[in-house]
Amino acid sequence: MAVIGVVGAGVMGIGVAQSVATGGHDVVLVDTSEEILADARAAIYRNCRMSRMMGGPTLDPDEILARVTTAVGLDALAKAELVIENVTENWEIKREVHAELDRVLPADTVVVANTSAIPITRIASVGSHPERVVGVHFMNPVPAKPVVELIPGFHTTPETLERTRDLLASMGKRWVDVKDASGFVSNRVLMLTINEAAYLVHEGVATAESVDEVFRGCFGHPMGPLETADLIGVDTILYSVEVLYEHYADSKYRPCPLLKQMTDAGLHGRKSGRGFYTYNS
Amino acid sequence: MTTTDRILAFITNRFPQAEISDVEDIFSLGYINSLFAMELVMFIEKEFTITIPNDELRIDNFRTAKAMTELVDGLRSAVV
Ligand SMILES: NC(=O)c1ccc[n+]([C@@H]2O[C@H](COP(=O)([O-])OP(=O)(O)OC[C@H]3O[C@@H](n4cnc5c(N)ncnc54)[C@H](O)[C@@H]3O)[C@@H](O)[C@H]2O)c1
Questions:
Q1: Which residues line ligand 1 (CB under 6 A)?
Q2: Same-domain check for residues A119 and A137
Q3: Does A191 lie in the same domain as A145?
Q4: DSSP state of A216
Q5: What is the mean pLDDT of each run of 10 residues along chain B (80 residues)?
Q6: What is the CATH number of the domain that holds B8?
Q7: A202 is catalytic
Q8: Does residue A281 lie in a domain region?
Q9: Distance (Å, whole) CA A21 – CA A25
């Protein structure tokens, strides 16, 4: 079993680390502070406890956590065979992290970028080895979602893809092959939907509850777009819509001002305790 | 407040549209999904200062306020 690096211990990094460890690998999980990493360990423990109740396998939280080491800073990743990057959906942050990955990783380490909307070719252009960079758009919650989008960048080699598919298979994931374009398939559609749903609330056409009830009750969706926004993170929604807006230079992706206000006010959804709905932590 | 009242208050605080009795299956209402089961576990453990054993973490224990009350009261009497 391999050593797999996971960068970013937020909503996605926590789920990716759990799924990789459940696949039998050792995980090195890094972020910017010990506090974030301690919270991440607690979240992985909790999510493993709840795994069976959420429809997953029965997991021993201690056994899974024993495979996860945590560290501040990217130097701890030097021994990893493959690194999965899950930092904030912001170009400046992604650029800095990938520049540093380029410095600390040996040339044959595969770098997987997990992003909602940033083109993989753009991320790969930051380092000196674009051939080893590939996109995997994981779904949230990672342990509960069996399918991902697999996105090669312009220079991604077949070997990089092969090694990434092997890892995904060991995590019990299937993949849909998608070409590199901002937002891929999923978020070209979903982010527009959520953004438009936010406009409906912003304009007072309907409450968040009513918007979600239409999607559940009329369309049979298991969750409405605004509870989905709270699950994803309202800030992450805004950043993703901004990436689409910038990338396509098309006004149809204009971000809803309500998303901006909620992001500034700290209403980031489930992870902060409040978004379109209020949660008990 | 009884255990059942405290649990029902938690549910209706989160879902004001819910008009539920203690035997109503909350997951059959259509707008409450299994993500809320996680919130229920965390609420119950904090509110009643108990740790629910891992093998009791089954969705059936959290379907109704009655089932949750039985779980909580059983665990509390085991502690005393
Ligand atoms: N939330 C979702 O549902 C979802 C789904 C698929 C993909 N994504 C993508 O996954 C990525 C992560 O999203 P998230 O929801 O986990 O975000 P998040 O805000 O929950 O977590 C981001 C983490 O990255 C860390 N970070 C920032 N700068 C760092 C650095 N220099 N070094 C190490 N860590 C750093 C932050 O401290 C934070 O813990 C984003 O690109 C997002 O678009 C998110």
A1: A 7-13, 30-32, 36, 86-89, 93, 97, 114-116, 137-138, 140, 232-233, 236, 240, 271
A2: yes
A3: no
A4: I
A5: 95 89 93 92 96 95 97 85
A6: 1.10.1200.10
A7: no
A8: no
A9: 5
Mutating which of B54, B58, B68 best tests the A interface, going by the most A Cβ atoms within 10 A? B54
Domain range for A68 is 3-177
Range(s) of the domain holding residue B49: 3-79
Q: Give the separation between CA A69 and CA B12, rounded to whole angstroms.
A: 40
Residue stretches of chain A with pLDDT short of 50: none
Place of tokens 């800073």: A73
Domain count, chain A: 2
**Of A153, A147, A140, residue with least CA distance to A181:** A153
Whether A90 and A228 map to the same domain: the answer is: no
Distance CA A131, CA A122 (A): 12
Ligand 1 centre to CA of A231 (Å) is 13
Q: Are residues A165 and A268 in the same domain?
A: no
Number of domains making up chain B = 1
Mean pLDDT value across chain A: 97
The CA distance from A170 to A152, in Å, is 19
Domain shared by A120 and A171, yes or no: yes
A277 within a domain of the structure (yes/no): no
Task: Order the strands of the A147-152 sheet from edge to edge.
Answer: A68-72, A26-31, A3-7, A82-85, A110-113, A133-137, A147-152, A174-177
Residue A207 and residue A131 share a domain: no
A212–B31 C-beta distance less than 8 A: yes
- Total residues found in chain A within this entry: 281
Distance of alpha carbon A117 from alpha carbon A239, whole angstroms: 9
Q: Are A230 and A201 in contact (CB under 8 A)?
A: no
Query: Could you report the per-residue pLDDT of A91-100, keeping only the tens digit for each?
Result: 999 999 999 9
Distance from C-alpha of A143 to C-alpha of A92, rounded to nearest angstrom: 28
